Amino acid sequence: MATPFPPFDGSAPKQQKFSEPPEMGIDPSKRYTANMSTSMGEIVIALDPIKAPKTVNNFVFLALNHYFDGIIFHRIINGFVCQGGDPTGTGRGGPGYRFEDELPKPGQYEIGSVAMANAGPDTNGSQFFLISGPSGAGLPPLYSLFGKIVKGLDVLEQMQSVKTGGGDKPVDDVIINSVTITQHDD
């Protein structure tokens, strides 16, 4: 049994634990953008429901449940990626379920790409990363690619330049304040 999809109006209460992946709540023929408000500025992501319908559906589902609100980017590596989406802030947390990969063709990652972090094949949950440099763009196609930053690459540049400590964790938290979803009907 899939978890019911929340309303698009943002009225769902904050929830960070689920027993099952979400039901399909998006229309893959429509366009979706995610506005990610961070402690360093705004990032706008064009989501790609054509190439990754399950992954976009999952990200939208979590955002509409306010799942990402207050979560930190727990791993930032300059020239590589900024990773977030774990409510525990450790890199080991998730929503309580996993779902299968929707992998891109080789060579499709670029700076600004948004992809799922995983612990091996078909282990997607809530952790994602923003590709911030050439090392990230050169990753093998083992991570579901589901969006691209269309505004806020300057914020991504600032994020990847923060001082980090052990485990590539930023010394000063880089926080996701909220993620709001817009559905475009054109």
TrEMBL record:
<dbReference type="GO" id="GO:0003755">
    <property type="term" value="F:peptidyl-prolyl cis-trans isomerase activity"/>
</dbReference>
<keyword id="KW-0697">Rotamase</keyword>
<dbReference type="Pfam" id="PF00160">
    <property type="entry name" value="Pro_isomerase"/>
</dbReference>
<dbReference type="InterPro" id="IPR029000">
    <property type="entry name" value="Cyclophilin-like_dom_sf"/>
</dbReference>
<comment type="function">
    <text>PPIases accelerate the folding of proteins. It catalyzes the cis-trans isomerization of proline imidic peptide bonds in oligopeptides.</text>
</comment>
<feature type="domain" description="PPIase cyclophilin-type">
    <location>
        <begin position="37"/>
        <end position="181"/>
    </location>
</feature>
<keyword id="KW-0413">Isomerase</keyword>
<feature type="region of interest" description="Disordered">
    <location>
        <begin position="1"/>
        <end position="32"/>
    </location>
</feature>
<dbReference type="InterPro" id="IPR002130">
    <property type="entry name" value="Cyclophilin-type_PPIase_dom"/>
</dbReference>
<dbReference type="InterPro" id="IPR044666">
    <property type="entry name" value="Cyclophilin_A-like"/>
</dbReference>
<comment type="similarity">
    <text>Belongs to the cyclophilin-type PPIase family.</text>
</comment>
<protein>
    <recommendedName>
        <fullName>Peptidyl-prolyl cis-trans isomerase</fullName>
        <ecNumber>5.2.1.8</ecNumber>
    </recommendedName>
</protein>
